[in-house]
Amino acid sequence: MRRAAVLGTGQTEHRTRRTDVSMAGLCREAIDRALADAATGWDQIDAVVLGKAPDLFEGVMMPELFLADAIGAAGKPLLRVHTAGSVGGATGIVATSLIRAGVHRRVLAVAFEKQSESNAMWALSIQPPFSAPITAGAGGYFAPHIRSYIRRFDAPAHIGALVAVKDRRNGALNPHAHLRQPDITLDSVQRSPMLWDPIRYDETCPSSDGACALVIGDQAAAEASSNQVAWIRATAMRTEPTFYSGKDHVDPRAGSVAASALWEAAGIKRPLEEIDVAELYVPFSWFEPMWLENVGFVGQGQGWKLVESGETRIGGALPVNPSGGVLCSNPIGASGLLRFAEAAMQVMGRAGEHQVPGAATALGHAYGGGSQFFSMWVVGRQP
Amino acid sequence: MDTLAAPLTIAFDYTRSLGPVLGRFMAGLRERRVLGARTSDGRVHVPPLEYDPVTHEPVTDLVEVSPTGTVVSWTWNARPVEGQPLDRPFGWALIRLDGADTPMLHAVDASELHTGMRVRIRWTPARQGHIRDIECFEPGESDMSGSTGGEPVEIMTTPIRLHYTHTTSTEEDRYLRALEQGRIIGQRCPACRKVYVPPRVCPADGVAPDEVVEVADRGMVTTFCVVNVPFAGQRLTPPYVVAQVLLDGADIPISHLILGVEAADVRMGMRVAAVWRDRSRWSTTPENIDHFEPSGEPDAPYESYAEHL
């Protein structure tokens, strides 16, 4: 298969309310930084791929229509991608596929969310007629599945809090992060309010405005780059229904099948040993141990033990979310592409204060819907 | 027979962060001034573009154009609908304001239109720095000039209301009509033999369900969440327990409230029974079941519901 690589990445300063910019301005903050990082000009971009979560979040139907000019798509192919919370990851993969298919040489991938334009909790709680008025909110959807994980593997109650402490401290090393809390402690997390039992306030993601952009190029473009690129060694996407009888909400089949396909395509036999750093989509702390198992870093019931051992911190055997992850910044539509971009930044050696020393191979991971869509990639310093 | 249907309205007052270009444009409208964006090719775009379509650079040069312009093309709207600028028949027109190179779309309050017609902005009396400060256009030349100055507008509110009719599927309709009689029914998938409550096209096999199966109004809690947090769109006051309840005879749980017990005492595997509203209030709605509460039976063993987690 033809090779593809990330030539450059860019992201915004993620905040609760970026009232200083429009949606177009938010996207351009990320795009302009990605083009600069990739040392790529607008005239070298062949196509643009835009990702964003549900249109009800901003109340703009098909935002790709009014954004086409601002994101540089006039006169070029523009594709909109839409796979709920995983959309950022899917956006990166669609752009990669356009390169690998030999259609284009350089593609701009951009994803955003401007959550401050409405209220995602409201948008996710629309109650159609003839349904019972039983709403629990976004955390209320996932909390029962976390409870199931704890019960299935007899996980100690403090595991989620350990993840929150790690990610928030990591976020303090990331100048783009929305939440930066260097002084957070296990005790302070455990004293934070219980929102959706068993999920505490400090174990939930924030609501953010933000965007992320990548320039992805073909082999010739990558080899012409004077900077280190992130070679895209493999991508995978899988889907399953949100609900069906027998669905495993703790260990969703689409996630494990996607991961198996990913490792095989990347030629990776022992992920825990061969992957140097992982950016997993963890909107609620407990999803770190759940996804460590689902993607196959460890066996069933072993995820919480890896967390407890401290091996997912920077300096551990498998640093997870050195950027602070979704727990520190959650512009929903961009969150998946941020995971993919942060994985690329690590192997490019351009992750700044949260750089994992010597990172040569990295995983970017995203999921969305009710654990319905999964997208992931492996990037490396070498093809 | 028609299936049940009911209206659904989705409404929210969305906000728009405007950024430097549109912020100045809206501030201009408040002062009865129209600003256009001059781009690198010399053209003036109204409303302004935020980025130059040729060079992709941010637009910085905003120039004032006239509130009077010429109809470039038009169509007639004989039956206005909710949310449009006028509630009587009017014309939609592409209007190129004097000094602008691009036309903008707006409503013209006139009994007839023609291409080349001269029209002017009719301003809203109480302007607030919003696109709706332009009420519509009307025939004639403007003799007013706006005042200058004014800080850029940071945020504009744009209320949106969407009206739908939700029409039920035959399976949902059958389920609701059974609920009206105090019964809970599911339907079995002919491929995997699983009983879905409410009945639906099998999400795993993609085929329509057939056999109608009556299930019990009691079952077990598989897993649950204690909701302690208030949020937009919420219908109940926290704290409350939302549980996955696997009804006896069903192969997939439903979401419901567990009341009649302290939240801290709800357990996985707890046996629960439906508490129905008074029969006089029953209709074709799941709300006939007010909530579930403990039935007093011994807890179900973990193995009996492990595959439903």
Structure description:
Chain A: This is Thiolase domain-containing protein. Chain A: InterPro entries: Thiolase, Thiolase-like, Thiolase_C_2. Chain A: Residues 252-374 form the Thiolase C-terminal domain. The complex is a heterodimer of chains A (383) and B (309). Chain A contains 14 helices and 11 strands. Chain A is of the alpha/beta class and 383 residues long. The longest helix of chain A is centred in the middle third of the chain and has 17 residues, at 137-153. The model of chain A has no long low-confidence stretch (mean pLDDT 96). Chain B has 3 domains: 5-162, no CATH class; 168-215, no CATH class; 216-309, no CATH class. Chain B is 7% helix and 38% strand. Chain B has 2 helices and 18 strands. In chain B, the strands form 5 sheets. Chain B has a 5-stranded antiparallel beta sheet with strand order 7-6-5-8-9, with no helix packed on it. The radius of gyration of chain B is 30 Å and the shape is elongated. The two termini of chain B are 38 Å apart. The chains are: A alpha/beta (383), B mainly beta (309). Chains A and B meet through helix 1, helix 4, helix 5 and strand 5 of A and strand 1, helix 1, strand 10, strand 12 and strand 14 of B.
Task: Count the domains of chain A.
Answer: 1
CATH-defined fold name of chain A: Peroxisomal Thiolase, Chain A, domain 1
Major sheet description of chain B: 5 strands, antiparallel
CA-CA gap between termini of chain B: 38 Å
Can you count the beta strands of chain B?
Answer: 18
Mind telling me the C-alpha Rg of chain A? 19 Å
Assembly state: heterodimer
Figure out the total of helices of chain B.
2
Outline of chain A, from the CA principal axes?
globular
Mean pLDDT of chain A comes to 96
CATH superfamily of chain A: Thiolase/Chalcone synthase
Strand order of the largest sheet of chain B: 7-6-5-8-9
Secondary structure tally, helices of chain A = 14
Please compute the radius of gyration of chain B using only Cα atoms. 30 Å
Q: Could you tell me the number of beta strands of chain A?
A: 11
User: CA-to-CA gap between the ends of chain A?
Assistant: 12 Å
Helix-strand pattern of chain B: EHEEEEEEEEEHEEEEEEEE
Q: Tell me what the CATH architecture of chain A is.
A: 3-Layer(aba) Sandwich
Domain Thiolase C-terminal (chain A): 252-374
InterPro entries (chain A): Thiolase, Thiolase-like, Thiolase_C_2
Protein name (chain A): Thiolase domain-containing protein
